[in-house]
Design brief:
79 residues; GMP Synthetase, Chain A, domain 3; 3-stranded mixed beta sheet; 27% strand
């Protein structure tokens, strides 16, 4: 998958998960995709102080990104 296609797929995944984050007062921004397999995002708004943000990151964000871009190995939140 080309870099542009990979970025577009990750952005599509974030658009899918965004309404759920927005409903709780949060949001998410793509920071970078490193080596074509490591995604860095920034959880924003209410998500920054939420006690379950790591669960949201793994169960929601990472799972959704991997659905659109299966080659992604890690998703990390950059504060």
């Amino acid at each position: 998958m080309k870099t542009e296609e990979l970025t577009n797929n990750v952005l599509k995944a974030l658009e899918e998960i965004r309404p759920f984050l927005n409903s709780d007062g949060g949001d998410i921004t793509l920071i970078s995709i490193d080596e074509g397999k490591h995604v860095k995002v920034r959880l924003e708004g209410a998500c920054t102080s939420c006690s379950v943000n790591q669960m949201t990151l793994r169960a929601g964000v990472e799972t959704t990104i991997k659905k659109y871009a299966p080659q992604i190995e890690t998703v990390v939140n950059i504060m």
